[in-house]
## 1
Amino acid sequence: MNENRGSKIQYILSSGAKLGIAQTVLLLLLYLTGTMFKSGLSAISWLIYAAVIYYTLKIYRDRFMDGYVTYWKGVGFGTRISMWSGVIVGFFYFLMIKVFDPSMADSMIAEAEEAYLAMGLSETYVESMQDAIQRAANPWVLFFSSILNGLLYGFIVSLIVSIFTKRKGDPFQEAMKDVS
């Protein structure tokens, strides 16, 4: 049983790594094309979440759960791997701002200000929000907010994906499994 539990944990971690790497590759491509903060292409991340969670949850169900998984176990699985992917994405943001491109934080601040102005907020109000905007571009804040975003996105996507991957077993067989 411990070996199976260890394998499950290892699979959850590796699935989170796959999702995190896929998200990081998308962010890197958006960064290299200069559209990281300006494009609707970041919506592709929702598709990546859905595809990776669906694929890895099906394998998890068939390999570790004897072909059966309840709706909420599927949601839990997707949320856990999304949290681990958030760690990887947060690490990406942290490295980008601290090591590779410190000016990225300035770009994030400028984009946030432009977005607030485009929403119709006054310049004086946006200027009064300057401290909060700068705090949000801090590498540590980005790291932890990426984890929280991963949890939230993963939970939302898992709520939908688990509808299609759930499979209930025979209740009689499950009850009789413990009877000798």
## 2
Amino acid sequence: MKFFVFRVEGIDLAAGADRRGFFTTRRAFGTTKEWARQRLLKKLRREFTMGISSVFMGGNDFDLRVEEGWEIGFMEYWRSPSRGSTLYDEGDAF
């Protein structure tokens, strides 16, 4: 079994590109990087459709993009955080 960390962006399709979405870094494991990636995307889709994070997306359809993924060791897998998201909305100003 191999362990991975993925950086993922979720984009709210109803709001339009780069107007509303989230970034998250999550860990996953699997026999291959692609298998771990697919498992993670399925879990995130469920979280943002039916889970606690679904309030932010408002039931809208969204696209998930894996920006980067890399293999990590077993101990790093258990020490690294794997929850939480940075949400953004076009109303956010810096």
